[in-house]
Amino acid sequence: MSKSRIGIAVVVLTTLLSSAALARVHLGSGPLGVARFAAARVLSLGRLHHARAFARHGRIRTASPRSQNVRNAMDSGLGNPAVRRQIVAAAALAGWHGGRIANGWWRHGDGGYGWVGPLFWPFAIYDIYDYSIWGDGIGFWDYGYPDIYAAIFAPYGHDDLAAYTGPSPLDRRHRRVPPLPQLCGDDSGEIAGLPIDQIAQAIQPNEAQRAALDDLANALISAARMIQASCPTQTAFTAPHRLAVMQQRIEAMIKAESALQQPLGKFYDLLDDEQEARLNALGEDRRKMSPAKRATEAPAQGCGAAQSAALQWPADEIEARLHPNDTQRAALKALQDANARAVDILNAGCQPEDATTPPARLDAVEGRLEAMQRAVSLVSAALEGFYATLSDEQKAQFEAIGQKRTA
Length: 407
Fold this sequence. Notes:
Layout: H1 3-17, H2 20-25, H3 30-34, H4 37-41, H5 45-57, H6 67-75, H7 81-94, E1 115-116, E2 119-120, H8 124-134, H9 145-152, H10 158-165, H11 172-175, H12 180-184, H13 196-203, H14 207-228, H15 239-269, H16 273-288, H17 315-322, H18 326-348, H19 358-387, H20 392-403
Antiparallel strand pairs: 1-2
């Protein structure tokens, strides 16, 4: 690693680790105590400015922290979207082409990645509550068709994936890849990222409201564990299997979202107008500090935005690699048509402008996840049909399309 890259990694990790000790002091017992850590771990405006600059200029993407450093960075505040994007970007690239390339072609518009090795949608529970509670949808709404495309034409080869799921080899490249469970949330004591104390301080709840807030904290923990259980235990090496992984992950997220509906609705219904205004103001303050305020200014990459050149259907490359016969061409045309319909489904289910309350935004989360499930299911069925017509050599050639890309 060059001196400049080492320096960048040190600066970023120093920034992230600076609040870890403070966080441990404030942990308590019970649902409110379990969720307490995020309030103490919110980065100061000055430190967030540095994180914002790194993310904006792409410098953080050159850092490849070792697993313990990633663990420590996680301890410093997963409730902060900028921290999560930095961790995900470093993890996604550390096992890809030896960690030598600064940007992956499947990168989201916000700087994060939907696929990190064999894992789809890292830190999913945080993206759900960031949008539902705070109205900060940049992480959640950047997921969409590009992630389906990256499942079909995966960037990772067998050796890359082994770096995420196999025993840690001795070479330096693989030591930089964090263990997959860390990105799934392997410590149940640290999955309650909702800053319950921040909310309580803002609204000054009465006894009934505090009980409802306590129930919401418990529901968030349960929802996070539902998603955590969908963390892959085996590596998917083929496109059909990767789409199956997506379906399982999205299904778990739908169940988790459903578990939050009643407690969130009950809590919000107990608030008076002034308390609602305070909660909305808290979310507005958070969004002002976001390094990606464009979420309200332009379509997210996964929702309504024009597809980049990297996401165009590789018809010529498929033809050159596979030399398909007429039967295979017909199945391939059905797959391409299914992808086009998936794009239409997801573009029709973009972020609603009239979802202005936490319950309404959680409803929008449900709609988006269900749209993604339909889109993935549609593509998966067509892909299974296409794969059934291929020889083993043709399947290997098809899998190599995404792996050979570097931009």
